Amino acid sequence: MPHSMHNRTLRIGPSVSTETVTMNADLVLEQLRVIRSDIATLKQQTHEDYQFLAARMPAMEQPLAALVTALPGYADRIDQLEKRLTRMERRLEISE
């Protein structure tokens, strides 16, 4: 930063005191610090939530993969049972 920027003087009109400007600047800085703290807290919570989900995901993926693998087999068994039931109904002459 150039040296001249460090020594800048803020020209304030007659209706605004230097004390008022300082108080307003302090309030703005305080609010910015609160916002920074809130963002840091949200970042931490998001990171913790991600870690929790990343740890839980494999526990959910494995049973789901087993279910998806087993579904075609269940469909085949249901088809076989349906064919058997149809044959039994024909033998007993109770088919629709």
Report on the structure:
- With 96 residues, the protein is an all-alpha fold.
- The chain has helices at residues 3-6, 18-92.
- Helix content is 82%, strand content 0%.
- It is rod-shaped, with a radius of gyration of 37 Å.
Quick summary of this structure?
The chain is mainly alpha-helical and about 100 residues long.
Keywords:
mainly alpha; rod-shaped; disordered N terminus; 2 helices; 96 residues
Helix and strand topology:
Elements: H1 3-6, H2 18-92
Low-pLDDT sequence parts: 1-5
How can the largest sheet be summarized? Answer: none
Strand content: under 5%
From the N-terminal CA to the C-terminal CA, the straight-line distance is 93 Å
* Structural classification: mainly alpha
Mean pLDDT comes to 85
Number of helical stretches of at least 4 residues? 2
As for the number of domains, it is 1
**Morphology call:** rod-shaped
Radius of gyration: 37 Å
SSE run: HH
Task: Give a count of the beta strands, DSSP E runs of length 2 or more.
Answer: 0
Helix content, binned percent: over 70%
